[in-house]
């Protein structure tokens, strides 16, 4: 099973990772703000992650790490 780790304090909630995820398991955390004032992204169901790392590749701020 793959594991997706976000460095939430660097996330600027651009949503690019959400758009590119083939399994549609990424979302913004509602009601949570990081140090920059954005709602950081997170994985809503890690059991469905296939470890493709498309999200990490797309992230402009290198916020995401995918472990297989």
* Estimated helix fraction: 10-25%
CATH class: Alpha Beta
Shape: globular
How many strands in all? 4
Could you explain the architecture of this structure?
There is one protein chain. With 68 residues, the protein is of the alpha+beta class. The protein has one domain: Alpha-Beta Plaits. Helix content is 15%, strand content 21%. The protein has two helices and four strands, in the order βαββαβ. The chain has helices at residues 16-20, 54-58; strands at residues 3-6, 26-28, 41-43, 64-67. The strands form two sheets. It has a two-stranded antiparallel sheet with strand order 1-4. A two-stranded antiparallel ribbon has the order 2-3.
Protein traits:
68 residues, alpha+beta, two-stranded antiparallel sheet, 2 helices, 15% helix, globular
Draw up the topology in text.
Blueprint: E1 3-6, H1 16-20, E2 26-28, E3 41-43, H2 54-58, E4 64-67
Antiparallel strand pairs: 1-4, 2-3
The gist of it:
With 68 residues, the chain is α+β, with helices and mostly antiparallel strands.
């Amino acid at each position: 099973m793959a594991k997706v780790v976000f460095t939430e304090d660097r996330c600027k909630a651009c949503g690019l990772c959400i758009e590119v995820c083939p399994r549609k398991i990424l979302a913004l955390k509602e009601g949570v703000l990081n140090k920059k004032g954005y709602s950081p992204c997170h994985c809503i169901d890690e059991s469905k992650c296939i470890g493709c790392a498309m999200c990490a590749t797309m992230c402009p701020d290198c916020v995401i790490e995918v472990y297989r």
